[in-house]
Write a structure and sequence with these properties.
eight-stranded parallel beta barrel; single chain; 239 residues; alpha/beta; binds cytidine-5'-monophosphate; globular; TIM Barrel; 15% strand
């Protein structure tokens, strides 16, 4: 169990191109969650100004940019992103050790250095897709390999699927940040997610941050939905 368990682990995915909708959602769920996650859809629509607008709400923001390029380019992009006030951003661990180290070095002088986490294997890639791109190691083995490499390269943690939390925790130790999407409260609509865990299950397995989108943002009352999930975790802790 890592230290960040003490904080609210829920980050709400603001997956929209509509800035006022994102701000309205963020303001309504803000009091009940630990932070916000914005991804490529939002960033492509609103760029650095959009990131600043979400950061300005005063809560931790995970910017899901998934950088993957040569070390020099990723270093420059990481340095630029670090000036926007994100608390966490991510880069592909498969970019290799030199790329990850370049990113870490690039942000080390930043005022409040963002945490950098590695993307391991996208959950949209199964073993047969990996095989087709010349990657014969099974996905779960590759996730652990990349998580170890991310740690050895100075990254603060990784993003992985709920199924991989326990393996990564065992391989990388208690201080390594584990962020997981694919979270569904019991009885919730799975939508396009397949292998899911409930919020208490994910925390029990060793996750530090749970990225939750539609179960909160698609609810009739997003604030109420966020509050109920947070309460399910508090109940669990009290047991
Ligand atoms: O709506 P939902 O809870 O499924 O949203 C999950 C969020 O996590 C989305 O922003 C999605 O892009 C992201 N994500 C994911 N699976 C991954 C990586 C990221 O669902 N493997």
């Amino acid at each position: 169990m890592s230290n960040s368990r003490l904080e609210n682990p829920i980050y709400v995915a603001l997956d929209t191109q509509d800035l006022s909708r994102a701000l309205e959602l963020a303001r309504s769920v803000g009091p009940h969650v630990g932070g916000f996650k914005i991804g490529l859809e939002f960033i492509s629509a609103h760029g650095p100004e959009g990131i600043r607008a979400i950061v300005a709400l005063g809560r931790p923001v995970f910017v899901d940019v998934k950088f993957h390029d040569i070390p020099n380019t990723v270093a420059g992009a990481s340095k630029a992103l670090a000036t926007l006030g994100a608390s966490i951003f991510n880069i592909h661990a498969s970019g290799g050790e030199a790329m990850m180290r370049a990113a870490v070095d690039a942000v080390s002088g930043a005022n409040s250095r963002p945490k950098i986490i590695g993307v391991t294997v996208l959950t949209s890639l199964d073993n047969s897709v990996l095989e087709s791109v010349g990657q014969s190691t099974p996905a779960s083995e590759q996730v652990v390999r990349l998580a170890r490499l991310a740690k050895a390269s100075g990254l603060d943690g990784v993003v992985c699927s709920p199924q991989e939390i326990a393996m990564v925790r065992a391989a990388c130790g208690p201080e390594f940040l584990i962020v997981t999407p694919g979270i569904r409260p019991a009885g919730a609509d799975l939508a396009d997610q397949r292998r899911v865990l409930t919020p208490p299950e994910a925390v029990r397995a060793g996750a530090d941050i749970l990225v939750i989108g539609r179960p909160i943002t698609g609810a009739a009352n997003p604030a109420q939905a966020a509050k109920a999930i947070t309460e399910s975790l508090r109940l669990e802790e009290a047991l």
